[in-house]
Automatic annotation (TrEMBL):
Source organism, top-level taxon: Eukaryota
Entry protein name: Uncharacterized protein
GO molecular function terms noted in the UniProt entry: carboxypeptidase activity
The Transferrin receptor-like dimerisation domain, residue ranges: 339-450
Lineage: Eukaryota, Metazoa, Spiralia, Gnathifera, Rotifera
Species of origin: Rotaria socialis
Amino acid sequence: MGRLEEKAAPFLPRIPAQPIGYGEAQVILKYLGGNEVPADWRGILSNVAYRYGGELLNSSSIEVKSFNRLERRDTYNVIGIMKGEIEPDRYIVFGNHRDAWSLGSVDPTSGTAAMLEITRVLGEMAKNGFRPRRTLMFCSWGAEEYGLIGSIEYVEEYVKVFGARIISYLNVDIAVQGNHTVDIKTSPLLFDIIVEASKLVPSAYDPVGKTVYDKWVDFQWNNVTNEPKIAYGLGSGSDFFGFDQLVGSSNIDATYMFDHTYYKSLSSYALYHTSYEVFAMMKNFIDPNFTAHRTMGQLMGVVALFLSETPVLQFNVSRYTIALREAMKNLKPNNPEALDPLRQAINDFGATANDFMRRSKLIDFENPFNIRAYNDQLLQLERAFLNPLGQGGDYTDFKHIVFAPAKGNQYAATGFPSVSDAVATGNSREIDSQVAIATYFVRGALSTLKEFDNFFS
């Protein structure tokens, strides 16, 4: 495979950067002589006036010694496959990266532990005669922390294979960062499968008989829809990115989370990516009995078996209608009528999705060819939302027109990101252009749900 010369790679760093702790930052900030920043730019370090920079007070200087090196290293992906007995050309893929910033007891080793336990259990089942209906793949990725290198390289090399065959990618990067409840981000198509799986798995650190679903009822419940709160869209923060944006499969990322109502200011666990992230941290502060690890292994294992063993995939296409409408509600152009073409396309999508579900009840699922044809329509739906050109410029890998990172936030997923970016500019011509593109792909997606001999009506 061809490679760029290092000097020709525009994304390699040219300016040395050195992470520092809060203690060092507090001292340095006290020496800054620039103007004070606005209130919404200020942090919470004590006895510090937050300033833009400027010259250091008292003609002071700072010496930074960095021992980072730019060098070429080899990294490896480790792939295990349990071949499906009936549909070996349909894949359910588990994945987690193996590299860490330090010892990584949470990120990524909690996920590695959960994935290895799942493979151990499936291995025991295989000894007793179990063979999955569809192929199960287990992927330990290299170099995730350096830019998702291992998974992206693998997906790019085999994107045509995955594009034709994969059903779902299940990501277990940070499997456990708390012991309160399970937090999931997913494709809308998998919502119902996740809910059904959650009803079968015990919740960690709760009374016997209480399930993950029961815990959601208590703490992550949507009183409007009378359902658990499960976020749609995965962003770019882990190895699901290639499967989301280049392959177009329907994917999941899950973690056992701490209580956000108590730790309101924390976006992630306190010692994230530090040298303190060791086994003792996990054992003493996060998951003393490792029951959260067990719950995550059981939950993701049950989801995988639902996907691999159910002859008819339990994807719910009507969930995408809800997701599309929610995503559009968050778009606030100065002229709301600019969204009318997209709004009409989403309404038409909803009608087509309802018709698809009505027709599915009439299918003879005793016929394996009917099952295969129905399942293939479900798989084509998510892929139909991929724009081969992406968002253009430096953002060609952001291909999913409904859920992808926006240019203003390249980490999290945004609904209709290209339209959102256009709205942020206020440029009416750009807004109209991006609405037209989104409308085109929504209509393309709904055509995949129509009858085979009448997809163009």
